[in-house]
Design a protein that fits this description.
By secondary structure, the chain is mainly alpha-helical. The protein is built from ten helices and five strands; from the N terminus they run E-H-H-E-H-H-E-H-H-E-H-E-H-H-H. The chain has two domains: 114 residues, 5'-nuclease (Rossmann fold, 3-Layer(aba) Sandwich); 42 residues, no CATH class. The strands form two sheets. A three-stranded parallel β-sheet has the order 1-4-5. The protein is globular and about 45 Å long.
Length: 162
């Protein structure tokens, strides 16, 4: 299974000490150079920087289709655009990203998007975490992750938590 990730999921899960959930679920993931640069090189000391740098189960690849990148990059940031292009080039099974606009573009290219909350829902159902509510609250309060009340309650309902 080929899984490509954008920086948002890596940073969010790292901010609550749960980056390992990606390894548990997928064994390995692939990120483009722009995501590596954003998370590891330009955000030294921030959540995800050290965790991603040390994760030998994360592979970094370069994109090849710069024309497609330029077209997608008009409406997304570098990391999101490279992640989508890399997912297309690799015929990835899934792309990990949170941003709504990026998810819409991934859908247009028939790439299945999954975000941080989806990973946490899986983790709760797989008994990898004790409480989704606890992790969502940490994500909001410690990770400064924006989540609407509607999405928050829908996620809790998906795992029968209140």
């Amino acid at each position: 299974m080929k899984i490509v990730a954008n920086s948002s999921v890596l940073i969010a899960l790292s901010s609550i000490g749960k980056l390992n959930l990606l390894r548990d679920k997928y064994k390995n993931i692939i990120i483009p150079k722009a995501v590596w640069s954003e998370v590891v090189e330009t955000s030294w000391g921030e959540p995800g920087s050290d965790e991603v740098r040390k994760a030998n189960w994360i592979e970094v690849l370069e994109i090849k289709d710069n024309n497609l990148f330029m077209a997608i990059n008009e409406s997304l940031d570098y990391g999101e655009a490279e992640a989508i292009v890399l997912a297309i080039e690799l015929k990835a099974d899934m792309i990990l990203l949170d941003e709504k606009d990026a998810r819409i573009i991934a859908d247009r290219f028939n790439i299945v998007p999954l975000g941080t909350i989806g990973i946490l829902i899986w983790a709760k159902k797989a008994n990898k975490i004790e409480s989704l509510k606890k992790e969502l609250d940490k994500l909001k309060n410690e990770g400064n992750f924006r989540i609407s009340p509607k999405v928050y309650h829908r996620a809790l309902k998906a795992v029968d938590e209140r």
